Amino acid sequence: MNFFEHQDKARRKSKILILYFILALLIMILAMNAAVYGILYYTSQQVPDLRSLMNEPLWVYISLALTIIIVSGSLFKMYALRGGGTSVANMVNARRILTDSSDFHEKRLIHVVEEMSIASGVPMPALYIMDKEMGINAFVAGITPKDTVLVVTKGSLENLNREELQAVIGHEFSHIFNGDMKINIRLMAILAGILLIGNVGSIVLRNASYSSGSKRRDGKGGGGVIIILLIALVMIVFGYLGLFLGRIIKAAVSRQRELLADACSVQYTRYPQGLASAFKRMLMLEEGSKLKSPQVEDINHLCFGEAMSFTFFNSLFATHPPLDQRIKAIDPYGKYGLLDNTAKEEKQSGDVTGAKKTNLESVLAPIMYTMAATAGAANTHAEIMKNSIGNPSDAHFEHAKNIHNLLPEALLDRARNKEKIEYLYYGLILRRYKNKTPIVEYLSQTLSKAELESVNEIYEMLKPLPLETLVPLFDISLPAFSENSLEKRNVIYNHIEALSQTLMPSLFRFALLTLLGKKLTDSTRISDRPKYYSLDSVREEIAILFAFVTNYSYSNESQRNEHFTNIVKILLSEPIEKPNIKTFKAIQFRNTLEKLNKLTPELKEKIISSCVELVLSDNHVKIQEAEIIRVISGCLDSPMPPLLTEQIKK
């Protein structure tokens, strides 16, 4: 199953969640009606009659009230989670880890996640830490890659060594690839409504108790209040029923996905001992994977390990398989013990990278792999590139480590510094284009002398680096960019867009601006469902995209027109004229990709496959072509790892 099939399956799984929600709602409505009628007939000393019950409107009011309470609770939770992963991190009082942190454990985490981001093509998520949690745990949360956060506990950073931490991060990244984040955050919203009924019962009980006491002091009868008290008690009981149903739903959704994430982590890192050792440290630690947060009920199904303890029905409620079962799944013969080096020893050494610095030659020559080696049994180059989406190999991780270690620490410091991030983007534009005169002229008119010196420093560091380092460096910079206020982010974006308007239209520059534009909002629609279910509904956008791609890949105008016509014939039911893109602006291209991003996963797959086939039509792909396909895939929320192939032309 490839990335797009996983995404489509996750979309269908979300529909199953709605069915679970409706089923739980019906169970609670039936049970609540039965309980209320039982109380009323018990207090009136009458024998209940089913026909008379159905003729009374009370059951309609009860059902309607219960539905309103539960649905309102879910909608309110959806609104509260509109910030995506950031909302979840704030909910558990996690602290954001600044990308320029000097703390050893935080720097090591940043390095590990940066390498994972390079290897997978996933934009670097914002990092958070739960400072008061000493158990070993972590989770990712978000709706789209742009709002994804990775939250780790302090216990994870202090107790896991680098290999163990990398295995945990690999597990969490697999949840991004498999579409689990959307399911998990929607599950939080759905269950919030089911659990709300108990809270409403508690409020009614307190108010009714106060009213009952007042009436007794006044010497008035309190028969009606007693009935309300009984109903409130029933609502509290049904709150526990909602909790029971909610835990069953979470367990049903989560368990198999956790085993899949374990398997994916081993697949990515090709180092099962790292994950097995992390599990064993959890068993040895007094806190294990348990969390003390009052929000633990909400986030348990998100976590790497079981965050709650269940007194009863553990096998029924647990959202994760038992640790011994998870260890056996990746180490069936019990040959892996604890890794020798500890987090404490690594801290004493002061090495956060886990590797020596890489020479330029080791990136440019020896680590080039054949396509067959990176993608198994795929039959064509296009299939290999497509199948690598959401499916990085150990070769990609080796490549990522080499790329990361190749980047000078001073350059990485700029990429992690929100104050320097604008200068980094100017440096990347300078490094990318041969004709630097219009860029230098624009910067000279808009920047101060000190700012120009900062840009030049970055450019000098970028000059000796190969082209394949530019996109990874850009991805690494995104968390620092998002650390700025929304106003500052818009200012930076507008400055770069203004520079872009002074230059000829560029597919690469426009695509990077589109990725940057994804960070210009702090809210996300929690539904985020596809809007377009046919390629003909976005025919103009398809024409714009492939006009850019053909112009980028071919210098001969007749070849451009021929390939454009062939692609359109495959994708659309009717021909469309090739648009003139010479006067296009960045915002037009951004709007184009944002609309294409609202296609279903299977249609996005067709778009990306067509882009790949287009650049591979001459049986060769240049570094520039490979990177532009990766950037376009990223704009469509389909992370593509670096291309590792000897067919690349330097």
Automatic annotation (TrEMBL):
<keyword id="KW-1003">Cell membrane</keyword>
<feature type="transmembrane region" description="Helical">
    <location>
        <begin position="225"/>
        <end position="249"/>
    </location>
</feature>
<keyword id="KW-0472">Membrane</keyword>
<keyword id="KW-0482">Metalloprotease</keyword>
<dbReference type="InterPro" id="IPR050083">
    <property type="entry name" value="HtpX_protease"/>
</dbReference>
<keyword id="KW-0812">Transmembrane</keyword>
<feature type="domain" description="Peptidase M48">
    <location>
        <begin position="106"/>
        <end position="331"/>
    </location>
</feature>
<keyword id="KW-0645">Protease</keyword>
<protein>
    <submittedName>
        <fullName>M48 family metallopeptidase</fullName>
    </submittedName>
</protein>
<dbReference type="GO" id="GO:0006508">
    <property type="term" value="P:proteolysis"/>
</dbReference>
<feature type="transmembrane region" description="Helical">
    <location>
        <begin position="16"/>
        <end position="38"/>
    </location>
</feature>
<keyword id="KW-0378">Hydrolase</keyword>
<feature type="transmembrane region" description="Helical">
    <location>
        <begin position="185"/>
        <end position="205"/>
    </location>
</feature>
<feature type="transmembrane region" description="Helical">
    <location>
        <begin position="58"/>
        <end position="76"/>
    </location>
</feature>
<dbReference type="GO" id="GO:0046872">
    <property type="term" value="F:metal ion binding"/>
</dbReference>
<keyword id="KW-0479">Metal-binding</keyword>
<dbReference type="InterPro" id="IPR001915">
    <property type="entry name" value="Peptidase_M48"/>
</dbReference>
<keyword id="KW-0862">Zinc</keyword>
<dbReference type="GO" id="GO:0004222">
    <property type="term" value="F:metalloendopeptidase activity"/>
</dbReference>
<dbReference type="Pfam" id="PF01435">
    <property type="entry name" value="Peptidase_M48"/>
</dbReference>
<keyword id="KW-1133">Transmembrane helix</keyword>
